[in-house]
Amino acid sequence: MSFSTPSVVLDGSKQSIIINNDTIIAVTPVQFLFLSVLMDGVTEKKTIIEKVWGQANDSRYDNNYYQIIFQIRHLLKKNNLAVEFLQTIHCHGVRLNYNALRVKRRTFIERFLSLFRYGC
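Predicted structure:
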């Protein structure tokens, strides 16, 4: 069994995220900005809120933060991708987990043998 290296590209011209060169997901401008901040390596909740919404002291931005995470995970699930790509860091924030996007590729032998695996 081999695994391909996951790739994630944010396409500003199409306002989308391209995963593993074949899955294109359209995102809103705020989702796009949120993902770009994460791709820059920012993981702390307060810093993410400051970069995306400009303020971190207002509780409504906390709600926006959690709503964006929910929306992005929903988009991942809807496109049959691992929601674990957006990984919560307890008491800290969130980060991108590229390993969750690894595509499992079966070898020819594994595909061939799977044709004969029926029953127990």
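Summary: The radius of gyration is 18 Å.
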